[in-house]
Amino acid sequence: MAPSITDIPGVLVGHASDEPGGTGCTVVLAPRDGMPCTAFVRGRATGSRELDTCRPESLAGRVDAILLAGGSAHGLAAADGAARWLTAQGRGYPVGPGTVPIVPAAVVFDLAPCGRFDARPSAALGEAACAAAGRDVAEGSVGVGTGATVGKALGPGRAMKGGVGTWSVRVGDLVVGALAVVNCFGDVTDATGRIIAGARAADGSFADGAAYLARGGTAFGALSSATHQTTLVVVATNAALDRLALGGVARAAADGLARRIVPVGTAFDGDILFACSAGVAPGNALQVEQLARQVSETAVERAVRAARGRDGIPGLAG
Description:
Layout (H helix, E strand, L loop, with lengths): L11 E7 L4 E7 L7 E5 L6 E2 L15 E5 L8 H11 L4 E3 L2 E3 L4 E3 L15 H9 L17 E2 L9 E2 L1 E9 L2 E9 L4 E3 L5 E3 L11 H6 L16 E9 L3 H18 E2 L9 E10 L3 H21 L13
Parallel strand pairs: 5-8, 15-17
Antiparallel strand pairs: 1-2, 2-5, 3-17, 4-8, 6-7, 9-10, 11-12, 12-15, 13-14, 13-16
Helix pairs in contact: 1-2, 4-5
């Protein structure tokens, strides 16, 4: 298997896809006893649930899973299914005779141009993603990345296919991994700054969305209304970090987005980055922050390189 976020012991990933509808969801399952988690909101058009449970002062102190879904705000229903599956496993915050699973969730807007506008990730899909969770992580047009697109400065018809990507790095006993769904307004670049997926001009060449906007171009071209975007990232490490330190890790991961998505965090993007600690390995926060930036960058690139085209939207994987 290629390096992935599941290289952190106890962390599993599951996808559930609605291929005809062009949407889906992805779950990152914590170890059975949960894991500390912090969220950093980078974008300005977010759709989320239970983000308050990721604050350093929140009571539970850990999460049982993180659910990423398509369908815009409608897709938050998939978290109900994840909570239902966790409850059946006896997992969650202990409350009297039972448990209450802690499942923060975030969504991307994939209602156009792929699939059907009325397709919505359901609670059943969220439950299926949990049941499918394992260490082998599929990338590209799967799960929450099924209908993802990138590079929409000239409108969704000129976009390219986005998707899900993952990567990890190991330094001694320390492991840091990331999983990203890339559905951004901006273009995606490689490590040299060269655009590899993004808004296309009429002749099929890259239009360079950032340069187009800087010249005064109208966002989404001639469209009268905007479609929303979003890149979501989950970073996990086996380093024993508290939620305050994890806040710095999430912000460092956002730096990785800024190096690979141009422009990033716009008024049309709902970017959220989660950072989690699932282990007891030694590791200082500054080291984890730098590795978080690296793995987030690579996960973003892998997401578009593995994405398959559909519905007239081309993808780098064919």
